[in-house]
């Protein structure tokens, strides 16, 4: 059964806002070592400042109105095999260029649909006729934002890919390209693997994944890798990855093993939710200057989400349980792939490893930027997409009849 998208406006019930303020009034804070800095987690002074702003100065209604006026939002029911129908919230803005390239943008955790906000106007309306235009679709993944959450266990990478592909087809985009970071990189990779060449025609990621080349799987890349020393970027990237694995990945193991237990704290305590997410926003970016209201809007979208913040954690459990983080060699996507390297990304691999895992046709290296590239460095991400899909780019014309330019 096909369902038609309906326009959607964010309208948080007033009682939810009142309850938030009551809980903030009752907040209890932990103690802190005098010289803790950020080594132990979110600093007490930062969290207290943000909580005070959240309960006495921050105006959710003003930010809600801004989101509604700047992001064209919709909701549609999508049938997922063995999971029934899920209401999917998404941003969808079409370009005035009829031949614009359909692009699916997929967020991760602790992100949401708001990550598309800065790149949306740049993609839809190019600065010059020499730049390609895009029709942009940015869904809230199930369990995030204003999308429904799955009600049964086992909703893993195949289901996220199925849902996103069906969403694009429901919007009459039978062929499209994708962009994603964090979980979005894994979801778009799965889409490229399962629906590549028929629906997904190319994919771009700012969270590059790789596998070590071997003499049997990628003999030429393996030989080149052995003979070529690591570049400065690759050396620093390896160090960054080791640091993250050692000091910053505790959240992953909790969310991948006992998400329900953590979910009680995040659902019941807005202060706990704020600290849990704020820590990542700061630690995972490259000296990005977060404004307090910017942080509070980001966190409020988890606090006021349809399913609640606990639902957003379950992707870690389900994907880990299903072994979906890595694809067998036979399932590696063969459609054109592009990557953008940012120095403060959490986990990175040498270029040869990325080449061994995908049909890499485009890559770029940036001097600054971190995990939330679309939010931190929107011009950089958009510039790379224009280079990859524009005239003269390695993925130009991959979508039949849609090259991104006015006829």
From TrEMBL:
Transmembrane segments: none annotated. Residues 6-116 form the Epoxide hydrolase N-terminal domain. Keywords: Aromatic hydrocarbons catabolism, Hydrolase. The active site is at residues 182, 316, 371. GO terms for biological process: epoxide metabolic process. The keyword Lyase does not apply. GO terms for molecular function: epoxide hydrolase activity. The keyword Protein transport does not apply. Belongs to the peptidase S33 family. This is Alpha/beta-hydrolase.
């Amino acid at each position: 059964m096909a369902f038609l998208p309906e326009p959607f406006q964010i309208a948080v019930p007033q009682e939810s806002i009142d309850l938030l303020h009551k809980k903030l009034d009752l907040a209890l804070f932990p103690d802190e070592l005098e010289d803790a800095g950020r080594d132990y987690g979110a600093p007490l002074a930062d969290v207290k400042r943000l909580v005070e702003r959240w309960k006495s100065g921050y105006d959710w209604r003003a930010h809600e109105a801004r989101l509604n006026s700047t992001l064209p939002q919709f909701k549609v029911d999508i049938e997922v095999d063995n999971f029934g129908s899920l209401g999917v919230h998404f941003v969808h803005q079409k370009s005035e260029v009829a031949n614009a390239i359909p692009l699916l943008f997929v967020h991760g955790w602790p992100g949401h649909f708001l990550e598309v906000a800065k790149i949306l106007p740049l993609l839809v309306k190019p600065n010059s006729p020499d730049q390609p235009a895009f029709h942009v679709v940015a869904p809230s993944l199930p369990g995030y934002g204003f999308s429904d959450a799955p009600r049964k266990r086992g909703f893993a990478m195949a289901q996220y890919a199925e849902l996103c592909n069906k969403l694009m087809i429901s919007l009459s985009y039978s062929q499209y390209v994708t962009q994603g970071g964090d979980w979005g990189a894994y979801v778009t990779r799965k889409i490229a693997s399962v629906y590549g060449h028929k629906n997904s025609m190319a994919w771009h990621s700012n969270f590059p994944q790789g596998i070590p080349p071997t003499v049997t799987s990628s003999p030429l890349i393996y030989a080149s890798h052995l003979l070529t020393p690591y570049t400065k970027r690759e050396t620093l990237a390896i160090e960054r990855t080791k640091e993250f694995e050692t000091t910053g990945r505790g959240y992953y193991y909790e969310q991948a093993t006992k998400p329900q237990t953590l979910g009680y704290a995040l659902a019941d305590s807005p202060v706990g939710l704020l600290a849990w997410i704020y820590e990542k926003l700061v630690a995972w970016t490259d000296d990005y200057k977060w404004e307090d209201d910017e942080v509070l809007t980001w966190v409020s979208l988890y606090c006021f989400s349809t399913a609640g913040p606990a639902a957003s954690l379950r992707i870690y459990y389900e994907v880990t349980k299903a072994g979906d983080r890595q694809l067998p060699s036979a399932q590696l996507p063969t459609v054109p792939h592009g990557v953008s390297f940012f120095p403060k990304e959490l986990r990175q691999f040498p270029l040869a490893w990325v080449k061994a895992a995908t049909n890499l046709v485009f890559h770029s290296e940036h001097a600054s930027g971190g995990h939330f590239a679309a939010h931190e460095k929107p011009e950089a991400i958009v510039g790379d997409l224009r280079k990859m899909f524009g005239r003269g780019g390695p993925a130009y014309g991959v979508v039949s009849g849609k090259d991104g330019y006015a006829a």
